[in-house]
Amino acid sequence: MSLLDALKQHSIIVADTGDIDAIAQYTPRDATTNPSLLLKSSQDERYKDLVEDALAFGKKESGAAAARAEAFVDKLFVNFGRRILDIIPGRVSTEVDARLSFDTSRTIDKARKLIGMYEAEGVERERILIKVGSTWEGIRAAEQLEKEGIHTNLTLLFSFAQAVACAEARVTLISPFVGRIYDWYKADLGVDDIAIEEDPGVASVARIYTYFKKYDYATEVMGASFRKTGQITELAGCDLLTISPDLLEELKSTEGDLEPRLTVEKSKAADVERIDMNEQTYRWMHNEDAMAVEKLSEGIRKFYADGQKLIAYARDRVE
After folding, report:
1. Would 131 disulfide with which of 80, 95, 299, 301, CB 3.0-4.6 Å?
2. Model confidence, pTM
3. Is 131 among the catalytic positions?
């Protein structure tokens, strides 16, 4: 069998793309989107109807051009999400604007708005994951949203402190970024590559998975941001793995078999100390991880920049 088929026996596969045709090709259960992916897909002739519908929606918004552009972007996310849900059996992740990363109340408001738009289209909220950055403020927003039955995907997750705080907040899912952690350490060490068995991104996800299963947290772990297939196969057994189309194709075209590297049984047997997480502990532990501090800040800036490109694209069309 292919490595992709073998992987599906141990982990849920999620497509990390806005290309709806690519999603259909690899038959994942779930899918994730973000502003940069949607900006690319929105310029694809195949999805012209989704863009035109969002454009019409944005032009109906009263007020300044910025409000119309924001309405266009919100509707574009919902349109792509709804279309994706037509071809997958599971959930789609829709992202909250990175500008709200340190604003708990506005993150909650935006999430409620997006869920309301999905429900107006006949999509049940159980099929939507609202993506929120794993800042302390974002985690608090996610905690409240979960109490309202709005499920969340906590993204830009680099530190163990972020992961534990998310689990304590009972968020639905977290997305630790394997590839970006790998990138940081590769640059810090001044090397061209890091062996899989020493890969700090892979090790981070394994540590989080072990801790969550050891202490029976319901929060799902979804490895994300991969740079090579070896990082993916090394995490076979992780709850979910979100993978870009190019790496999905590489896995699909490679023959092989896999044994799960991560299991509940191994996690239960692990000697892992439980952490009493609060805001002070979170901030100190996260601050002690230089990589996580740098990559979280950088990630928010990059997500913001991608969002601004999408806003600029929208303003050109709704003014």
Report:
1. 95
2. 0.94
3. yes
